[in-house]
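Hi P.,

Sorry for the delay on this. The queue was packed all week, but I finally got your sequence through. Input first:
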Amino acid sequence: MNILLILVIYLVALSCCEDCRRIGDTCYTAVVHTTSDISYNKAVDICKDRNKDIGLIRDENSYKEVMEFLRHEITKTNKEKWYLTSIWTGISFDPVNVRITSPGSFAEWFPGYLLTGKYLFEDFTNVWLTVFNDPDAAAQGMSNGEPIAQTYGVLCEMKLN
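Then the structure:
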């Protein structure tokens, strides 16, 4: 491989991760607001405006690292030292057949908040992540909801390969 090409790839990878957490071959960033004002469609637009995609969580290790990254972001973004936030992910879910429909995605469900069923929850197809600043808090994880629901932010990603 050409040395110049290697240098360009290296510099792109560095610039990607200035404001992110690199986990494997993915660079994650988070946009966190102090008000719950982000629908799923707005979340997608926020990531696109940053030349990124809305973030997927691919395995348990990535989930744990993303949660730790978000705990840091909560403290940094919210000077009031909020205890929790919820942000959109790119994970999609079929509540009728009770399965994740995003290929290669992982879910760690918020206790008691996996909402399923044909009549009441058929539109609850998108997944957000709730994280507390306390890593030992039991009530954190993923929940499914309608894309019109409002969260505090979005997890964005850029694949590095």
